What does this fold into?
Amino acid sequence: MMPMVIRRVEPYSGAQHQRRPSLNPLVERYRILGVTLQHPCHRHYYMAGARVWIPDSEQVWRCAELTQDYKDRLVTVIYTDGQGVERTNEFKVKSDEELPPLRNPDILIGENDLTSLSYLHEPAVLYNLQVRFCNHNAIYTYCGIVLVAINPYEELPIYGPDTIGAYRGHSMGDLDPHIFAVAEEAFTQMERDNKDQSIIVSGESGAGKTVSAKYAMRYFASVGGSDSETQIEKKILASNPIMEAIGNAKTTRNDNSSRFGKYIELDFTQKYNIMGANMRTYLLEKSRVVFQAQDERNYHIFYQLCSASSDEKLKHLRLGPPESFHYMNQGLQEDPKRSSKTRQGHQQTFHYLNQGHSPHIDGVDDAADFQETRRAFMLLGINEAAQEQIFRILAGILHLGNVTLEEDNGDSSTIDSKDESLHIVAELLGIPVEDIQKWLCHRKIVSGREVFTKPMTYTEATFSRDALAKHIYAKLFDWIVSQINKCFAAPAKPFRFIGVLDIYGFETFVINSFEQFCINYANEKLQQQFNQHVFKLEQEEYVKEQIEWEFINFYDNQPCIDLIESKLGILDLLDEECRMPKGSDQSWVEKLYDKCKKWEHFSKPRLSNTSFLIAHFADKVGYECAGFLEKNRDTVSEEQINILKSSQINLVHALFTEKDHRAPTKVKVLPVAPVQSKSKQMKKTVGSQFRDSLSLLMLTLNSTTPHYVRCIKPNDDKMAFTFDPTRAIQQLRACGVLETVRISAAGYPSRWTYNEFSSRYRVLCNSRDIKRNDMRLTCQKIISNMIDDEDKFKFGRTKIFFRAGQVAYMEKLRADRLSACGVMIQKHVRMYLHRNRFRTMRKAAIVIQKYSRGMAARRQAHFMRQTAAAIKIQACVRGWVKRVQYRRLVYTVTQLQAYARGKWARQRFEHMRRVRAAIVIQKNVRAWLTKRRYLKAMRGIITTQGLVRCFLARRRLKKLKIEAKSVEHQKKLNKGLENKIISLQQKLTELKNENVHIKGYKEEITNLKGHLVEMKATEVQLKNSINRVNELEARVVKLTEELEMERDEKMDVLTEKERAEKENRELVERLNAENARLTEELSVAQREESKREAEELLRRKFEAEKQQLFMENADEKLAYQRLLKEFNRLEQKNDLLEEQLAKHKGNNAHKRTASNVSNLSGASDAPTELVRDDASEFSSIIGDDDIGYGSVRSRASEMSDSSRNLENIEWGSPSNKANSSEIKIQVPEKVEDITLVLQLQNKVRELEKERRTLAKQIDHLESSSSPVDDPQHAQELIRLQELEMENAKLKDDLNRLRKSIADAEPQNNRVQEFMKQFEALQDELERRREECIQLRTVLANRAHDLRSLTQTSYGKDVDIVNEDGELALAYQTQKQVNRQLEEELKAEKLRHRETETEYKGELERLRRDNERQQKLLAQNLTKGDSSNPETLLQSEIMRLTSENLNLQGQVDSLTEQLKKYKRSLRAYAKKLKEAGGTGSKRSSAQGSPYGGDPPDLLDVATTNEGEVLPVIRKKEREYMGMFEYDRREEMQIIRVLIYELKPRVAVTFLPGLPAYILFMCIRHTDHINDDEKVRSLLNNIVNGVKRVIKKRHEDLDSTVLWLSNVLRLLHNLKQYSGDKAFQAENTVKQNEQSLKNFDLSEYRQVLSDIAVWIYNGVIKLMEEKVQPLIVPSILEHEAIAGLSGNKPGGMRGRAGSLARELESPVEPQKALDLLLKELTQFYRTLAMFGTDPELITQVFRQIFYFICAGSLNNLLLRKDMCHWSKGMQIRYNLSHLEQWTRDMRLHESGVTDTLAPIIQAAQLLQARKTDDDVHSICDMCDKLTVSQIIKILNLYTPADEFEERVPITFIHKIQAKLQERAEGEQAQATLLMNTKFAFPVRFPFNPSSIHLEDVELPDALPLGMLKKV
It folds into this structure.
């Protein structure tokens, strides 16, 4: 751009720069600049009281006020001079154009944008900048598209990361002007428009160009940070110290002046991340290497190098302090105040360092800067070896300046061979001493074929030496820039770039030479580009709004450019003169006088023949021709170059052997011109090179969208916030700011939207003129009442455009209207106040009279009350005295009576007590004597009774023995019947056990069905072959993505990328074609296969069911045989017991008739009626209480025997035979597999037979129940009913299976026929069941008869049956047998387990083999020939079917053996239970081995060794609170609980259920002490959570879900860790469940870290959702009607720039509701997943801080928000947030405390701002920093003129008061709040009250592998 820095030391044309107290110079000045003063206002604006600007010699412009109306061209003003004295001035003007400029209203002073001012002219611009800079400390101001930056000469806290974040995403008009706003505008336009951008930073030396460019690049590095490891943005920032060291120097104007121009391109990827950079440099000031003016320095690098001369690594450079080098100190001025440490030694050694007499800079540490430079070198890849060579070259240059040249004979010069500096130069540069000594004093001349060596004079040799030093430094500078560019180089072709141009500004000195000429030439080109761009944008805005206007003729400096660069122009003539053998500066300037006199911009000074004048756009500059030719040639002796080429130093050799070209550049528009020949005649001059590079720069800038930054130097003394108007106006004229103002003023600078205009000026119209539906019509009516001239305004599509001054005029009308309204309001208010005052006074007088009269009355009444009270008091006192006297007398008499009467009573009591004691003693003695006589008599009587009773008992015993013998005979007769009864009872018990086993068989059936399904799944995998196609497609997509990434990240050239894409497309086409072919083949094969597969699946299903039924039938047969054997054994044993019992009964047995005997003897062969009679008779003998060994089993045995006999009955009825003959399964004629169908039919028959048998047994069990009141019988009846229900359930399952088979194959005739036959079998089964019911009735009657017989024989004394203990002896014998059986049982168990393990291994091997075969089949299907997939499928399916049938047969046989072993185990367990369990329980009953109730046979039986035998009863289990799982199922558990768990499913569970389940699994690993298992489980949990969060990090529900679960798992690990600190609230059970073996404290820390990570992710998600709503809801939302936040003036925006016209993300009026809705949703989400309340508080504390920081930062950067009405709106909006916290019960936790800064900011805007309020404001704003308070006060702007501005004195008092608080608080200097700040995260321990044993697995989680322990 144009850094138009106007430094006029001695202007050549002084007339136009001298300022006089008249207005004519003002007109003249604008006329020179091609500008005409615009007076858009009418003459009637110049009325008395109007404020204007008048010229001033000191302040440039001074404010004045008209004392009378303007008329007769006479202007009278009054103003205050510099001494504060009011002066009056009167002058005449020739025309209205010379009227003094009007001043803007106060309401517009301090606007952010200069073009927003109503009156646009030079004084308004200057004053606005001065107010913002001095009063508001605002260094940035917009001027249309230009950012004006004023150097504050002070570090400001406005460039931190928080400021970068605040400007990110905002357009230029949203926030206060800032360099970051311009950078954001460029970055956003690059993103939006997909176009390259440029930022042109220009200004005078010392104006802050380099700093502005540095901050712009810092912004790009922050917002466009790359993701790669190179971190190119850090390298870009690190290049600044290097470039400042080698290219910056101290000048009289700037301590760090850039002495070269640079253009840095920041390259971006398609994702707009920085991928590389490139730097171009322009016109390095090489002459500074060998010469510095007074008070200036050489380049910084030399002084930095000398400051480190004491370093051991640099000793070989032989450097001293900077003062010792001539090139660096050419006029030393010793500062006596500088310490010796700063001086670092002597200062007169080096010629190149001691010419400027100023080797030091205040506040700069060269040693520290040198270390910073070295670190930057390392970061950019320049290692220490390369740095050492760089330092050698730099030291060599310094020593070269100290080489002493001596004059010899006037025509030659010499160098002493002993010159120390010469040897040091040769050593450092690695060149021969003799060569450099010779060619520094000689030169070679070629004449034809002869070569002559000519000595040089002293002057020529000195020039040659200095030229060599400059050339070496220039080469080194270019090499360093090239190395930096290599480090910046992008790995691939950049997508877009942003260029930052930091170039010198316009310069004019006393003596201007070739360097100033080139600088001003570059500024001319940049100014032309700037003018064209500004004009273009201004015109486009009017065209866009469709308004008519006259096009502006702006100043065009093309003639000046043509003068310089056209043919026969200055540069062309200069190059021509350089090619002349005897060309000289004088001859060249004479040519200029002759050839360029036709140009009006060129002129010859009057008093000089060696200089010329050029009228630049900023000023006329005179150039001295001396040195132009030599500087343009830039020649160096070829012999000296050859010496350097032969250097032993690699870097020196490389510098001079490379091709002669500049640092690598990237030209975006045109390629670089080809390199020309190296010959001297064809070598380009410096001017030509500069012109070419400038042309390339302009091409680059024209191809981009430019953005302009104009840096202004406020004063020459470098004083902080000091504004010199004279210096500032010079730079404003030179840098194009006033040109922008002029172009804007020529059109319509003030612009309002219709809504804003209507809101502001609706007070100027009547309510009937307001059309709310048509704002444009409303605005037209408002304007028609104010402005008559239609040229003063234009109506656009969306805005109203006004000429300059119209806004000020409308503001005056508005203020007048409001003033009139204010007067009317004041009149009524004052009347109201006076009326109220009168009424108050009258009311007060009446009240005073009332109270005075009342007081007199009260005094009189008080006297009367006192008199009456005195009389009353006297009466009371006298009465009281008499009463006291009387009471004392009564008390004395009463005490005497009491003592006398008490004594008499005590005496009588003592006498009575003695008499009573004597009577008691007599009573006790007489009673003892009588009791002794009674006891002696009773002992005799008892002895006599005992003897008699013993005699009677022995006689009764003999009678009982005789009766027992007689009963024995009867038992022999009824032996068969009793055996049957006992066998039926035993059968009943066994059937109960078998029914329990049947339930186990059902579970085994289910498991086998599961195996069958798995076998089917292997065949289904054949159908999934199409998944391979999907995988290939996914792979293609993945390859495409990888190719895209490779294109962005790697350094492949474009051709390689295109080739890769082409190959990828071909690969995709081939894969798609292959996939299509495979898909078609598979679809054909699957259609053919589906038909065969259905029949095969059905056959396999029937085969499995058939095998299952076969096994069940065989098991039932074996069980039946075992029951028969057991029955016979127990029958024999019962006979023995019966015989022993008969021996004890004797002759007293019951007498039976002969008929009875005969009937009982033939009971086994008798018909049903006889059996029923015998059973009834025997039941009477047994009685109700069955006391005796095996009594219950006896009934079971009877039933079993009866059922066995009934099975042998031949039901001879014809119907039965017919039915039997019908049970034949018909096989269809056409059956492909007849064997399979026959097997199924046989299985059905066996199954039905078995079902009939079970039904009969169940019916007999039910019939055995007796109606008697025995509770054991009732319990058995209930159990039999349960078994019957289980049987019905099994039949229902079988029916469902049958129906499912039929439904699956509706078209299969074989299946339908099979179903019909199965239904016939069902009918037969029902018929058999009816017969069993009849048999059950017979058995019931029989059991009743037996009980009756027992009761008849023994009555109630049934205990005598086992009187002699025969049964006890039998019991002891049985116990020994049980022990032997137990040992056999253990051996059988071991053998069974070994066999079972072998069978399982065989099954697993077969399963793996089956899977392998299926995989091979799938591969063959995929790879095989497309012509035979159908045949291959058929053959493979047939093979697999046969193998599966064989395997299924083996499985069936193995399962049958397994069941056989299980039944054996159950039988042994039952025997032990019958013997050991029953006997032990009976022996303990009633203290007798024979007494007590019969035991419960279903109780748990234990052996003598204590081994627990299998139980039948299902008791309530006590769970341990853990889940057992197989380690192989661990990943499945993690997948279900973590990977696949969805928030919508988890919300239906117990909060934290996954954490509870995982912890219960951890407890089981601790219980079994498996450290590998617990480590694996915990690692998988941690990795699983991390993986889920990374995958779903953008899903708030998922992150909150796992935040809650991780914390719950963490709390559980603490609660059950066993630490006392975490067990305070545990129950006893929870303490027992603590971890016993493992200390998981380290994993607790890991989980805590993960929780913190998830917590930060949750906060980030919430902040991202809330961030777009903060500003609209808190700052822009206007809920209070009538308090408008609109301001006058301004409103123009930067229409000329390409600023974004983005709307707010939400409407401000809806934003607050949306924000509250989002917060409510956040709260519900956290509460829904069971987040700890303390954590919820922390979350919203952080969110509210983010809201506060975002809103406050935005407020601090928006001047339009800082006024009273906006403070009221903000406070009202914040009250909604406070109410929300109260609704959610968060207000007590301190959440709203985080809003204190923004609340106090709103209160500060509303507070009264007077000197009396200083203390209250400071106390009120304790949460705001000093910088924030001062910033708000500086930004505070009244919305109306009726409100006073904040005085500067008030701000100073506030600042002074706050400094006391700021002492010791570094944070008080912070301006913006840190939006990245995070409160410390704490997870308070929250124990759970849920018991682990109560946790159940929900059905929604497929966790069948977990077993609750």
In short: The mean pLDDT is 76. The two ends are 81 Å apart (CA to CA). The first helix runs from residue 24 to 32. DSSP finds 52 helices and 26 strands in the chain.
